[in-house]
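Support request, priority: normal
Reporter: lab tech (M.K.)
Component: structure prediction queue

Hi team, I submitted a job for Molybdopterin oxidoreductase from Mesorhizobium waimense yesterday, and the status page still shows it as pending. I've pasted the exact input below so you can check whether something in the sequence is tripping the parser. The sequence length should be 138 residues. Please let me know if I need to resubmit or if it's stuck on your end.
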Amino acid sequence: GTTVRLNRPHDNRHLSVKPGDDGFMVQHFNPTSRERWEATPTTRNLHRTLVPIVGRNGGWSQALGPTQLAWMFQEERPADWPMPEPTHPDVWFVYRSNPAISFWDTRRLAESIARFPFMVAFAYTVDETNYMADLLLP
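Reply from support: The job had stalled in the queue. We restarted it manually and it finished. Here are the results:
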């Protein structure tokens, strides 16, 4: 899990919310035009390539990146991907997040999580994801 910050400063996400000239929050979108789109990823997350809203303002915004693709392709990957078939982790640690409810295809994600051999969750309350954990830690 993460604490997403879209704008500086990076140490306080509440201070990262700033009003823009139009009254909406300042957001530095990644360019999506054919001429300016970053087709070659600069990080392993591909956040600037696939998700315009993450902005170009710092690495902490990667939490809004396309990590959900890992869930979507657990069972089958696109045919033209050069990598081997995806595999489930042997152990999965969950911290400060609840992907079972925040992912848009919650049923599919929960089915995938249920097949993980062992799951550890740091939990301060029971939620949809840590309910499936083998071990809960405070």
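Residues 68-73+88-137 form one domain. The two ends are 15 Å apart (CA to CA). Let us know if anything else looks off. Ticket resolved.
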